[in-house]
DNA sequence: TGGGGTTAT
DNA sequence: ATAACCC
């Protein structure tokens, strides 16, 4: 039996369950003395998100095998389709071959997915404000504080406490271990999150509960659709050993796994055992230490609240775009969508960027970009709808384009993208008598560079 | 292979 | 401005 101090007292552990000696603390979580308690992190991952949104939008698609298509790629599909052998990121041709009855919807316009995605994040923020987005369909939530609060409310003789959902490895729970107790409470909160997502938004998904982001994400994927799993400290090594290749480790991507393979490192165990000195020679101190810590399941990166987006972009890919006129037309389309989004957001972008991908024979999709400050006289007009900024903005973007591409030479693009970034809140202008003279944004002279000291924007004449 | 996003250098 | 990472 574990016991809890009555609420009102400082910390929740009673004398009968003294603070754990170091041997009880997970060896790999050992940090300088006096450090904070281990965190409780939940990773929430919606099931085949785009397909779920499409089924909510059009309920007739439910119980049919459904795929979401972008160009020639099937980006995701529902579980009906997966039963029939369809996989994520299949080509459309392979998918139709596998499953001729597959129903396809076009998912190139992300508007509805983006809106639902932010509803999910906002719902999770009701539990704890510390929510970090990862893509449109995953969120990390730091629920340490919420867990501590619940522990203080718990009855000291409460034996009914149990995990919600799966416990990784079917590990037995030790109700005398405060670390177990905290994670069990975390699993109950995760269950409440999933229930809220289902009842209020109609969405299903997985959750993983653990003491850091890496482990929460890995353990959340163990039981797959619409289930949750909690990782207790004793099973951490088993979880990371279950990875068949280091590339499955979040944070180790395509490039890094290739460089590691060149050193003979392909498994988690290889990376754990590898000489830190030699690893440091290859990757530098910061990266090598982070990589090796990941291999032990260690991850001290905080859950960083995402807040509103730092950029908006719209892109389009195609087989061919090779004339100035085509480019201008595509840019105008991308810009029109972006301006709608800017008007909804309320903030104003101060920088615009154009990104292209050239059709190069054997190069992997390498992108080039040019950016510039948006002229200050245009910024207040963005997204207001009363003055049309389209023409001046298209002109700016075409100048960026000609800065990248010599239009006197033949060219062949396969992608165009426009990005608004450096978003700033529109300064509410409360007028005191002196404000007119003191507020920079009301001044008629502009101060180039003042708000973008770190940016080396390409100069575009008006 | 799409249409997004982020951070580090 | 690019390159890496994530989905």
What's the rounded overall pLDDT mean? 88
Q: How many β strands by DSSP?
A: 14
Structural class: alpha+beta
Helix-strand pattern, N to C?
Answer: EHEEHEHEHEEHEHEHEHHHHEHEEHEH
What sort of overall outline do the alpha carbons produce when their principal axes are compared?
Answer: globular
Cα(first) to Cα(last) distance is: 75 Å
Number of helices: 14
Unreliable stretches (pLDDT < 50, length at least 5) are 1-32, 434-455
Q: How much strand?
A: 15-25%
- Helicity range: 25-40%
Order of strands across the biggest sheet?
6-7-1-9-10-8
Query: What's the main sheet like?
Result: 6 strands, mixed
- Rg (CA only): 26 Å
What does this entry look like structurally?
By secondary structure, the protein is of the alpha+beta class. Helices cover 35% and strands 18% of the residues. It has helices at residues 49-57, 79-83, 92-98, 111-127, 144-153, 178-201, 213-220, 236-241, 254-262, 268-273, 276-295, 324-345, 390-404, 435-438, and strands spanning 41-46, 66-70, 73-77, 90-91, 103-106, 131-134, 138-142, 166-167, 205-210, 228-230, 311-321, 348-358, 367-373, 413-424. The strands form 3 sheets. The protein has a 6-stranded mixed beta sheet. Strands 4-3-2-5 form a 4-stranded mixed beta sheet. A 4-stranded antiparallel beta sheet has the order 11-14-12-13, with helices on one face. β6 (131-134) and β7 form a beta hairpin. α4 packs across α6 (178-201), α5 packs across α6 and α12 (324-345) packs across α13 (390-404). The longest helix has 24 residues, at 178-201. The termini are far apart.
